[in-house]
Specification:
Elements (H helix, E strand, L loop, with lengths): L2 E11 L7 E7 L5 E6 L1 H12 L8 H11 L3 E11 L2 E10 L2 E7 L1 H11 L3 E4 H7 L9 H6 L6 E2 L18 H20 L3 H18 L1
Parallel strand pairs: 3-8, 4-7
Antiparallel strand pairs: 1-2, 1-7, 2-3, 4-5, 5-6
Helix pairs in contact: 1-3, 1-7, 2-3, 6-7
Length: about 210
Amino acid sequence: MNKVQVEILGLSSSPSAGGAYALLLKESFGLRRLPIIIGAFEAQAIALEIEGIKPPRPLTHDLLKNVIYNLGGTVVEVLIDSLRENTFYAKIVLEISSLTNEIDARPSDAIAVAVRTGAPIFVSEEVMKTASFIPSGESDTDKESESLFDDSFSEDEEEKEEYEVPQKPTSGKSSLESKIAVLQEKLREAIEKEDYERAAILRDEISKLQGTNN
């Protein structure tokens, strides 16, 4: 099977898409983009690992990684290998005791495992030809991702609760530092409650504010 390596380019949500998320993959050595609509839980699992947020207890994909490693196995790669009736299908390729095993999985679950194990992500050339696109011009990832909800193929969709994050202060360094301190406390509380979706949102806002404080 001909396949191409891809990497995660972006992940965004849209209230108008019923709580779904757009996961945007980019061809590692090319221009093509592959959008996939995924559910909130899987998007959260991918985002937490990318953002470096470590939950106090292992999530499902962390548990799967630990089981594989404790059995002496490695994740060789994940492969999005087919598209049937507008639904993507994938495999997690494992090597245990010198034997290769292919496990059927949803692409979002496979990618959540890949980002935790450092395994490469591949897409079959047939899927790329069917579902990918080449951007017409330079644009930021958020705008690309927002436009994908009307055109992307999907997985299971799950509802997402929206969270309000305070806007950046307009003036005053002390006010900015106070806002960061408040958000950091909210981040700590969110992690303790295992509300990792809110934690990811808060972490992004803190990073933005810290950037303006430098």
